[in-house]
Amino acid sequence: MIAAFRAWCRQRAAAQLEISDVQWQAAEYALPFLDRLTDDQRTRLRALAREFIVTKEWSGAPGLQLTAAIQLSIALQACLPILNLGLDAYRGWVGIVVYPGDFVIPRQIVDEAGVVHEFDDEVLGEAWEGGPVLLSWFDDMNDVGDVNIVIHEFAHKLDMSNGEVDGMPALPADMTRAAWIAAFAPAYADFCRRVDADEETTIDPYAAEHPSEFFAVTSEVFFEAPDLLLEEYPAVYAQLRLFYRQDPGAR
Ligand SMILES: [Zn+2]
């Protein structure tokens, strides 16, 4: 009952958001991978993006004027992976902080001798467990190359749905951990080997950093260039198709 009421409030607030056709079209035009969607899927994505905008708390970091265009673009990209999973997949946190370009996170590591090292980590985005998603915004997304910062960070959020950020999100009942590992482990090992051998890979070599990065990067590729993932790692594609309940390569 409470859940139903909350959903009703959310839908009401979302319906009151004023977004013109021109605004939608401008946001979608800049995201050519949305062209794979059918009319029905696009309509559902817009509705989900509206709800996403009203349920999250948005802020712009100093130097960034948070505009409706930026919110729309982020919402469309963040909602694409959960188009068939629903907004609850992103429950448990509300903040989205948008930075003007890449930003720096101060970090500390303690070495084996117990000495604390402090350094600034330059990042494009970061997802905090139970906390906000931090995203950098570039007016010209070509400035960051073939990287989808939004899909990447929201894949990390899904990965956190069962605790640890380990490249395995909470799986639905019709999937198994064994099948997931059987697909991802050899693909990750193969990819690391290729990156270590300095091979030019069409998938971002950052995916070799950690199994969680492999999941986030292959999720980007799944939605942006599904044919590439199908060709490189078909078993990973098959697991992501089951997980996201979408088949972008068939569209
Ligand atoms: Zn990452």
Describe the structure in your own words.
Helices cover 46% and strands 14% of the residues. It contains nine helices and six strands; from the N terminus they run H-H-H-E-H-E-E-E-E-E-H-H-H-H-H. The structure holds zinc ion. Zinc ion binds at residues 152, 156, 213, 216.
Largest sheet: 4 strands, mixed
Ligand inventory reads:
zinc ion
CA-CA gap between termini: 37 Å
How is the quaternary structure best described?
single chain
Total helices: the number is: 9
Low-confidence residue ranges: none
Tally of strands: 6
The topology string of helices and strands comes to HHHEHEEEEEHHHHH
Radius of gyration: 19 Å
Overall geometric form: globular
Mean pLDDT: 92
Summarize the structure.
The protein is of the alpha/beta class. The protein is built from nine helices and six strands.
Give me some keywords for this one.
251 residues; 6 strands; 14% strand; 4-stranded mixed beta sheet; globular; single chain; two-stranded antiparallel ribbon
Helices and strands, with pairings:
Layout: H1 2-16, H2 21-29, H3 39-55, E1 57-60, H4 68-79, E2 95-100, E3 103-110, E4 116-123, E5 125-127, E6 133-137, H5 149-159, H6 177-196, H7 211-224, H8 226-232, H9 234-244
Parallel strand pairs: 1-2, 2-6
Antiparallel strand pairs: 3-4, 5-6
Helix pairs in contact: 1-3, 2-4, 3-4, 5-7, 6-9, 7-8, 8-9
The structure holds zinc ion.
